[in-house]
Amino acid sequence: MFEQVTTKALFGDLDKTIAKPLLEKTVYPWEALDGLKDFILELGKALPTDKYDKIGEDIWIAKSATVAPSASITGPLIVCENAEIRHCAFIRGVAIVGAGAVVGNSTELKGTLLFDGVQVPHYNYVGDSILGYKSHMGAGSITSNLKSDKTIVYLAVDGEKLCTNRKKLGAILGDNVEVGCNSVLNPGTVIGKNTTVYPVSMVRGYVPENSIYKFKDEVVDKVKSEE
Description:
The two termini are about 35 Å apart. The chain has one domain (about 5-225): UDP N-Acetylglucosamine Acyltransferase, domain 1, CATH 2.160.10.10. It is mainly beta. About 10% of the residues lie in helices and about 35% in strands.
């Protein structure tokens, strides 16, 4: 087993997402993407009506959340408490926006799970991805979710390859990951907890937790670099 990229390794507390019951069934987090649509549809029906409003078709918005009038939103979708959907955000469906999360100006989501406290605030594309608790994507950073040859995505981990069984897979970010502005996360990128990615980076494969990604061949231990 590729322990570094398991759900357990990447996310410290599944209570930080309303999708905990879905993720608990997985070994690797991207497995949850296959069942995300059905999960949203079932969970939406059970959400408390004193905290959530159902608007449109299969869209549930927390009463405490803020959705800009200019935002375009399509279900199935759950926007959790105190989340913020800003001006001209574009949510194409099959998405969960966690409590206190921010989906910003001209940001596009599709087939994506955002844990609580996630920020994708400026010109981001996030597709077929899972972003862990309080992870943040800088302005213009995107997830690329489809290979140019449209074949199955394999994840490179320490010189070995793990088949994800998915043609479309963006990025999996562990808790408290920081992605610098204008970076591209190639299909199947997995970034471990508490890791920082430099701006204008092109990232592929697995980046270890508690590290700093400077360049492809320069990934340093965050603790040692701060000593």
